[in-house]
Design goal:
The complex is a heterodimer of chains A (111) and B (112). Chain A has no helices and 9 strands. Chain A has 111 residues and is mainly beta. Chain B is 0% helix and 46% strand. Chain B contains no helices and 11 strands. Classes of the chains: A mainly beta (111), B mainly beta (112). Chains A and B meet through strand 3, strand 4 and strand 8 of A and strand 4, strand 5, strand 9 and strand 10 of B.
Chain lengths: 111, 112
């Protein structure tokens, strides 16, 4: 199974762009890359998903290089409310659909 | 309101007791999951079910059992609770592989 590795924590300031990179060296051909956000005392919520190149939605952008061994979640102009834990997942479509979360990256946005 | 509901919200349980955490979704999702989250750690998958009638083991299945008698319900049972099972438990569901997963509000379980 593909394992993901991401920084344990990151600090940023309001208004900055934040990039969180995740490595997934053993990603399989049919696996997708998905990011979730979790606030304290809440369950995670879906942010964005992609297979390759770039995906953008109203919340974030996801950059995936051609070899797909890593991905970068980009949060434009963060605010204090973006303080949360961000999880990178490789969706094991060919592994029976298990949804495995790694340790996540704790992002702290300061004023 | 459509969504996924967990019960109870919190529980204090004596060690050795049996406990079932309930999870119900009304979105007709095929797949359902149970996770535990310990303080300062990420989510660890306990058990999952890709469709009604089937279940599978996740990363930390020992001490837990699940059933999936129908599409909507996915209860998690602790046959004989131990203090190391003190945690916050999250249930999740999604329509198919790759699609967005929706999470419940969590159950905070304390085993004493």
């Amino acid at each position: 199974l593909a394992k993901t590795t991401q920084p344990i924590s990151m600090d940023s300031y309001e208004g900055q762009e934040v990039n969180i990179t995740c490595s997934h060296n053993n990603i399989a051909t049919n696996d997708y890359i998905t990011w979730y956000q979790q606030f304290p005392s809440q369950g995670p919520r879906f942010i964005i998903q992609g297979y390759k190149t770039k995906v953008t939605n109203e919340v974030a952008s996801l950059f995936i290089p051609a070899d797909r061994k890593s991905s970068t979640l980009s949060l434009p102009r963060v605010s204090l409310s973006d303080t949360a834990v961000y999880y990178c997942l490789v969706d094991y479509y060919n592994q029976g659909g298990k949804l495995i979360f790694g340790q996540g990256t704790e992002l702290s946005v300061k004023p | 309101i459509a969504g996924i509901t967990q019960a109870p919200t919190s529980q204090i349980l004596a060690a050795g007791r049996r406990m079932t955490l309930r999870c119900t979704q009304d979105m007709r999702h095929n797949a359902m999951y149970w996770y535990r989250q310990d303080l300062g750690l990420g989510l660890r998958l306990i058990h999952y079910s890709n469709t009604a009638g089937t279940t599978g083991k996740g990363e930390v299945p020992d001490g837990y059992s699940v059933s999936r008698a129908n599409t909507d319900d996915f209860p998690l049972t602790l046959a004989s609770a131990v203090p190391s099972q003190t945690s916050v438990y999250f249930c999740a569901s999604r329509r198919t592989g790759r699609s967005e997963a929706f999470f419940g509000q969590g159950t905070r379980l304390t085993v004493v």
